[in-house]
Design brief:
Blueprint (H helix, E strand, L loop, with lengths): L14 H22 L4 H28 L5 H23 L3 H31 L5
Bound molecules: fe (ii) ion (2 copies).
One fe (ii) ion binds next to helix 2 and helix 4.
């Protein structure tokens, strides 16, 4: 079972972002659990849609922080955000035509992407903001 287990090492030391990351991990886990339990399509669609909305809000938070503090790696970071959103939207399109197999198969990838992005890109952003006394 693919399940994101929150670890302290995932913290990027920016409380608002850490809270959002933990909330996203919870939504990813709930969605994955529904897929595994064979939940109805309307349940999957609702959960995926909530994940997408919450992800957008989260990315906006990070991108606002990056822009307002002149973060030098903004473009590379944003490219990954855009790719993750596209991936979620593709998943939503496939789901809307009933393709759950692909969705399930790709779900492992999405969990990995989430953790890798958080652990690499977001951690660098956290360190940058911490040097500016933002926690
Ligand atoms: Fe993030
Ligand atoms: Fe990010």
């Amino acid at each position: 079972m693919t399940h994101i287990v929150w670890r302290n090492e995932y913290s990027i030391n920016i409380s608002r972002i850490d809270d959002q990351h933990q909330n996203l991990a919870r939504l990813v886990n709930e969605l994955n659990e529904s897929v595994e339990l064979g939940a109805e399509m309307k349940v999957l669609r609702k959960q995926l849609s909530e994940l997408i909305v919450t992800t957008r809000i989260h990315f906006d938070t990070e991108e606002d922080l990056m822009r307002s503090h002149g973060y030098p790696d903004y473009s590379n970071h944003k490219v990954e955000h855009d790719a993750l959103i596209s991936y979620l939207e593709d998943t939503e399109s496939r789901l809307s035509v009933g393709v759950v197999d692909t969705f399930l198969t790709n779900f492992n990838v999405s969990c990995d992407c989430f953790i890798i992005h958080m652990n690499e890109r977001d951690k660098k952003l956290g360190a940058f903001l911490n040097r500016r006394d933002i926690y």
